[in-house]
């Protein structure tokens, strides 16, 4: 009986993800500040939450029923209005856009829809941990290449983490089906430059490879950096699937609404996976996201547009946490985008005894012991590396700064108190 009903091999050994493990850690030890998971601990824009409240009491009963499987009509039309000018082409809302259960499902549909048994997929490390799992579920073979810091200097920025051009080129073979790009990058906050994107694009074109571009942090880019969509580079529209997120765009991660846009011939594969998996996403939240887009489209050229004000709101939070980490023994990489900071903790190694923690990797031992002692929860970045490269993440911890100012101030107090006690 036990053997017959074992977990299918395509799901590996069924290990807990870092999120399952660290949510339980937070529940067990109740750290005073959770800077682990990437979500705000304060309210989304009022017009966004009001939209959902209005829908809940709407006179239209159909807003509580199934909507179009590939995306609520009002939402896909507004997604097209947002992105068409940004990519320099008119998106077909009904054939080139798919609404998904978060960006997570957009990734799932793109990977499962295009990767076949034995196909190779190039993954840039560190990577969001589901990439590897989804590729293997599809029967694909992930091929990893790590972003590495040019130096270990202080005041390092995410731009200092780079790919080796020769190593990247060597990964492309006649078996390569796809490359997964994440810009702005989680967890480093790297915003890929035009030159870096052109290198990737040229290799994809040379070897006839798809690019899945995970751009969920697209609106969180700090000046003078600019987010460039790889689909806008010459001859890349035809081979790029771009992924976005309402959770990140409007600070409502719990709504779990995402999307993908790409040419209709590529989209067909995603639609097949989606219709046989999720089928359709919740109508009320899709309608609310559609209405929220309409508000932002009405002020798209104003600094008040949330697409632009969000980065301005996050910048002082980023700078505060960078300074706090530096003053308390960490060496943070200053992110150019996103809302995470990766910080080297090894200067604190003599202050913390990790021998009571049993995990294989040092960053797991550090973040667990640090949460128990200092009351601040961070995430171990080795979770974002392949087994062969986990050592590259062991000296770091990932902190999230899209948090209330008072919780960032509490973080500063807790770190100072911990340091003083050592």
* Largest sheet strand order: 2-10-9-8-7-3-4
Molecular shape: globular
Order of helices and strands: HEHHEHEHEEEHEHEEHEHHHEEHEEH
Distance between the termini: 53 Å
CATH class (first level) name of the largest domain: Alpha Beta
In total, the number of strands is 14
Strand content: 5-15%
Unreliable spans are none
- Gyration radius, rounded: 21 Å
Count of all domains: 2
Count of helical segments?
A: 13
Structural class given helices, strands, pairing?
alpha/beta
> Can you tell me the CATH topology of the largest domain?
Aspartate Aminotransferase, domain 2
Report on the structure:
- The protein is of the alpha/beta class and 422 residues long.
- It has 2 domains: 9-44 and 305-421, Alpha-Beta Complex (Aspartate Aminotransferase, domain 1); 47-298, Type I PLP-dependent aspartate aminotransferase-like (Major domain) (Aspartate Aminotransferase, domain 2).
- Helices cover 39% and strands 14% of the residues.
- It is built from 13 helices and 14 strands.
- The chain has helices at residues 18-29, 46-56, 73-87, 102-114, 130-137, 165-171, 194-206, 246-249, 264-275, 283-298, 306-327, 362-374, 405-421, and strands at 33-34, 97-100, 120-125, 141-146, 148-149, 161-162, 176-182, 210-214, 240-245, 258-261, 331-333, 340-344, 376-377, 396-400.
- The strands form 4 sheets. The chain has a 7-stranded mixed β-sheet with strand order 2-10-9-8-7-3-4, with helices on both faces. Strands 11-12-14 form a 3-stranded antiparallel β-sheet.
- Helix 2 packs across helix 10 (283-298), helix 4 (102-114) runs parallel beside helix 5 (130-137) and helix 11 runs parallel beside helix 13.
- The chain starts with 17 loop residues before the first helix and ends with a helix.
């Amino acid at each position: 009986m036990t053997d017959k009903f074992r977990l299918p091999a395509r799901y590996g050994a069924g290990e807990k993800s870092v999120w399952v493990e660290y949510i339980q850690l937070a529940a067990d030890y109740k750290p005073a500040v959770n800077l682990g998971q990437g979500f705000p601990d304060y309210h989304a824009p009022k017009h966004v939450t009001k939209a959902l409240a209005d829908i809940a009491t709407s006179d239209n009963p159909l807003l509580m029923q199934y909507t179009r499987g590939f995306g609520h009509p009002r939402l896909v039309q507004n997604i097209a209005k947002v992105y068409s000018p940004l990519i320099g082409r008119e998106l077909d809302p009904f054939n080139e856009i798919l609404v998904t259960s978060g960006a997570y499902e957009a990734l799932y549909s793109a990977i499962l829809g295009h990767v076949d048994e034995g196909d190779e997929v190039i993954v840039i490390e560190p990577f969001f941990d589901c990439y590897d799992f989804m590729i293997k579920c599809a029967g694909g073979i992930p091929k990893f290449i790590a972003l590495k810091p040019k130096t270990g200097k202080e005041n390092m920025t995410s731009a200092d983490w780079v790919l080796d051009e020769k190593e990247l080129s060597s990964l492309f073979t006649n078996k390569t089906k796809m490359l997964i790009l994440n810009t702005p990058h989680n967890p480093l906050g790297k915003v890929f430059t035009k030159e870096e994107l052109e290198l990737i694009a040229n290799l994809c074109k040379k070897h006839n490879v798809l690019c899945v571009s995970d751009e969920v942090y697209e609106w969180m880019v700090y000046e003078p950096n600019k987010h460039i969509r790889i689909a806008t580079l010459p001859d890349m529209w035809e081979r790029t699937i771009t992924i976005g997120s309402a959770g990140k765009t409007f600070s409502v991660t719990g709504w779990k609404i995402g999307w993908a846009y790409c040419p209709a011939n590529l989209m067909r594969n995603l639609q097949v996976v989606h219709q046989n998996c999720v089928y359709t996403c919740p109508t009320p939240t899709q309608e609310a996201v559609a209405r929220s887009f309409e508000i932002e489209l009405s002020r798209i050229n104003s600094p008040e547009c949330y697409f632009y004000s969000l980065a301005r709101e996050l910048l002082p939070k980023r700078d505060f946490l960078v300074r706090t980490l530096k003053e308390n023994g960490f060496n943070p990489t200053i992110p150019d985008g996103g809302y995470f900071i990766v910080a080297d903790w090894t200067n604190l190694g003599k202050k913390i005894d990790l021998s009571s923690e049993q995990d294989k990797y040092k960053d797991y031992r550090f973040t667990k012991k640090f949460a128990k002692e200092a009351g601040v929860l961070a995430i171990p970045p080795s979770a974002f590396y392949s087994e062969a490269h986990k050592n590259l993440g062991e000296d770091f911890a990932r902190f999230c700064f899209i948090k209330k100012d008072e919780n960032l101030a509490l973080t500063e107090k807790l770190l100072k108190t911990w340091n003083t006690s050592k």
